[in-house]
């Protein structure tokens, strides 16, 4: 798993740390090439992709609410954050590769290289992630 962490965290700016949840490590998606690695990671852990429009107040509210309620075991979940305004090509590739209609904000869960859940707006809740974790 160290190889994957190196691919997604080449410097300190590659993680977004929410102020109220320092235990959540979000890795930024910035390149289309990262999607193949996400699929590989999804064979070992649940992959969570949060697509966020940084200029949208609703998206920011959903992001903050999701983070406030999120408490996932690091050994079972890998978290990825996409600023879709800065990396629209990555967002478009997600739509094409995973066959999920683009929305913002949007939560996409991958397990064994397949989308097992996706939600947008008020349907984005931490409990949807928890339902795919082993207890």
Q: What would you give as the CATH superfamily? A: Glutaredoxin
Q: What is the CATH C level class, in words?
A: Alpha Beta
The rounded Rg comes to: 13 Å
Helix count, per DSSP? 5
How many structural units, i.e. domains?
1
- Give me the CATH architecture, please: 3-Layer(aba) Sandwich
Helix content percent band: 25-40%
InterPro entries: BrxC, Thioredoxin-like_sf
Organism: Psychroflexus planctonicus
Pfam family, one: BrxC
Protein name: Thioredoxin family protein
What does this structure look like?
This is Thioredoxin family protein. Pfam families: BrxC (PF11009). This protein is α/β, with parallel strands linked by helices. It has one domain (2-129): 3-Layer(aba) Sandwich (Glutaredoxin), CATH 3.40.30. Helix content is 33%, strand content 24%. It has helices at residues 2-8, 34-41, 57-69, 88-98, 126-130, and strands at residues 15-16, 26-28, 46-52, 77-83, 106-111, 114-120. Strands 1-2-4-3-5-6 form a six-stranded mixed β-sheet, sandwiched between helices. Mean pLDDT is 85; it is low at 10-20.
């Amino acid at each position: 798993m160290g190889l994957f962490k190196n691919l997604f965290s080449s410097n300190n700016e590659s993680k977004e740390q929410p102020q109220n949840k320092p235990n959540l490590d979000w890795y930024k998606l910035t390149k289309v090439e990262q999607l193949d690695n996400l699929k590989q990671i999804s064979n070992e852990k649940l992959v969570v992709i949060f697509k966020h429009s940084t200029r949208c107040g609703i998206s920011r509210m959903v992001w903050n609410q999701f983070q406030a309620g999120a408490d996932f075991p690091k050994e079972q979940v890998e978290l990825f954050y996409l600023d879709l305004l800065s990396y629209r090509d990555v967002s478009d590739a997600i739509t094409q590769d995973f066959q999920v209609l683009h929305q913002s904000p949007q939560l996409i869960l991958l397990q064994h290289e397949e989308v097992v859940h996706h939600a947008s707006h008020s349907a984005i809740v931490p409990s949807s992630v928890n339902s795919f974790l082993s207890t």
